[in-house]
Design brief:
CATH topology: Immunoglobulin-like
CATH architecture: Sandwich
CATH class: Mainly Beta
Number of domains: 1
Distance between the termini: 41 Å
Shape: globular
Number of strands: 9
Radius of gyration: 15 Å
Strand order of the largest sheet: 1-2-3-4-7-6-5-8-9
Number of helices: 3
Strand content: 35-45%
Order of helices and strands: HEEEEEEEHEEH
Largest sheet: 9 strands, antiparallel
Helix content: 25-40%
Structural class: alpha+beta
Length: 173
């Protein structure tokens, strides 16, 4: 029991530390609507979808090559996702789908708004599996359906190609 508790504490501390490291890429005022990618000198790329200027970051995929880590974040309207529970985030485009387990966090995307957070290690094998699953969804022709718990939104694919190309170059090549 005690070991499980300590592992959970370590994971929470690691998630908080990761969010603090990503704040410059995530919490900039003046976010423009649509798909964008932020790349930093440490070989980290953050693919973001924002529905309106200065709007919520409905989806953030973060590839931290320097730490062999991948993060999935999603900001929600207050009350849309219950607090402090384990959730599954699903991305679906046609027959392609990607699912990841995570938590609802009070500061999910680093802007004081509750959101979904998932962070995990990715070695070479895991990166190949991730590439296959995530790109099947992101490169589809239909709108992407983002679902967290019972909350769901459609994300357009228009404007995604350019940002995705830059994200792929850092994350998967």
């Amino acid at each position: 029991m005690r070991i499980v508790f300590y592992k959970q504490v370590v994971h929470v501390i690691a998630a908080v530390f990761l969010i603090l490291l990503m704040l410059p890429a995530l919490a900039s005022a003046g976010d423009k609507a649509g798909w964008s990618v932020a790349i930093d000198p440490r070989n980290r790329a953050f693919l973001k979808y924002i529905p309106s200027d200065n709007g919520p970051r409905l989806l953030v995929l973060g590839c931290l090559r320097d730490a062999d880590s991948f993060v999935v974040l999603s900001e929600h309207a207050p009350g849309a996702v219950p607090g402090d529970v384990t959730l599954t985030l699903m991305l679906v485009n046609g027959a392609a789908q990607y699912a990841v387990q995570g938590k609802s966090d009070p500061n999910g995307v680093g802007v004081g708004q509750r959101g979904f957070v998932s962070e995990f290690d990715v070695g070479a094998k895991e990166r190949g599996d991730l590439r296959r699953k995530v790109l099947a969804v992101l490169e589809g022709k239909d709108p992407i359906v983002l679902t967290v718990g019972s909350w769901s939104r459609e994300l357009p694919v228009s404007g995604l190609a350019e940002a995705l190309g830059r994200f792929k170059a850092i994350c998967f090549e």
